[in-house]
Amino acid sequence: MEERLSARNERVKPRRLYLDTSVYNRPFDDLSQARVWLEALAFAIILQMIESGGARLVSSEVLEFENSRNPFAHRKRWVSFYFGLAKDYQELDESIRKRALVLESQRLEPLDALHLACAEEARAEYFITCDDRIIKRYQGEALKVMNPVNFVISEVIGDGGDQGKQ
Fold first, then answer.
1. Is the pTM of this model over 0.85?
2. Does 3.40.50.1010 match the CATH number of domain 15-157?
C-alpha cells in the first residue's frame, strides 16, 4: 500500500480518486468561461497530486468505453494517456450493472450510474465530476461526489472539510 508523509511527518494514505470523463475533457472546452477555466486548472492540480503520489487514480472499463466514443482522435489519445496514470482499474461485472440500475432510480443517466457503480466497487473515496446533475442526484454513501474546484479547495488547500456528499 502506498503512503506519503504529511506536513507533520505522519504517514498518510493517498486519496483514491475516480475522475469522470467530463474532468478529463475539461481542458478542451471553452476556457474563456471562468468556471470552465477554473475546473481545467483544478484538473491540472489533481494530475500533479496523482503524479506526486498524493492521490491514487482509479480507472475503469466504463471510462475506456466512453472515451472510445469520443469523435476527436487527439482528445481520445490525450485522455487515454492520463488513464495510464491509474494504479487501479475496475472492470465491468454483473454486480456493478445491478448497482447501476439502483443508481439510475436516482434519476442518474445510465452511463453516469455505471461510472458511479465502478467507483464504489473500486473503493474510490472521491468521484470528481464537472456535471452538476451527478453531484446533486447521487444519494449513495460510499463516495464524496464533488466538482474538481471544490475538491482542490476542500481537500488540497483546505483541511479536508466536508464540501461534497458522503
1. yes
2. yes
Alpha carbon distance 63, 68 (integer Å): 9
Its sign, for the CA torsion 59, 61, 67, 68, is positive
Give backbone dihedrals phi and psi of 39, rounded to 5 degrees, phi first: -65, -40
135 vs 128: CA distance, rounded Å: 9
Residue 39: which of 164, 133, 146 has the closest Cα? 146
The domains of the chain are located at: 15-157
pLDDT in tens, 79-100: 999 999 999 999 999 999 999 9
Instruction: Report the run of H or E that residue 69 belongs to, with start and end.
Output: none
Could you tell me which of 54, 70, 56 has the C-alpha nearest to residue 21?
70
